[in-house]
Specification:
The protein has about 170 residues and is an alpha+beta fold. It contains three helices and ten strands, in the order E-E-E-H-E-E-E-E-E-E-E-H-H. It is about 20% helix and about 25% strand.
């Protein structure tokens, strides 16, 4: 399927709107119990994309700190009015958005590149034949396309600076 960018999306009340200006680096369908609990669904479908490739078109989402399995937590960007989660920030902080694919105006355009943590998927969830699926996580260099790896590598200095500042602030 050929996708033409940009893609737009937002929350239910349409006060938070965004535009993805390029393809994401990769799309995860995560079946871990944390994602199941957080979404109230069987999995979370997240498109990983550089934050500077996501343009805000309306109100700024509220960042809510939420616990995570890693212990470092995550920031979930939610509409301050209807509270729909539009993306998350994990250990890379505000450098990478994990856009909730279901918030796109046409979520069918971004199917998962990989199903992760399938060892804890709901037993009634049937993955498509031939889908890339791993019990837990994977080695990025073995799965991601080179272009996406290059994009992630280019973010390395920004991510390290963010993580160092966060560690220094913590004490």
């Amino acid at each position: 399927m050929s996708v033409i960018y940009p893609l737009e999306g937002g929350c239910d009340c349409r006060r938070v709107r965004y535009r993805m200006t390029s393809a994401p680096m990769f799309v995860h369908c995560c079946h871990c119990r944390w994602c199941q609990r957080e979404t109230g669904a069987s999995f979370a479908l997240n498109a990983m994309i550089e934050s500077d490739r996501v343009e805000l078109l309306a109100e700024v989402p509220l960042l809510v700190h939420t616990p995570s399995h890693s212990g470092r937590g995550q920031l979930i960007a939610r509409c301050p009015h209807c509270h729909v989660a539009v993306w998350s920030h994990y250990s890379a902080g505000p450098i990478i958005n994990f856009v909730r694919v279901g918030t796109l105006d046409d979520p069918d355009l971004l199917p998962p590149d990989v199903h992760i943590f399938t060892e804890s998927k709901q037993p009634w969830v049937v993955l498509p034949p031939g889908a890339l699926a791993v019990p837990e996580f994977y080695v990025r260099k073995e799965v991601w396309p080179k272009e996406s790896l290059d994009r992630l590598e280019a973010l390395g200095p920004k991510i390290k600076a963010y993580q160092a500042a966060r560690a220094a602030a913590a004490g």
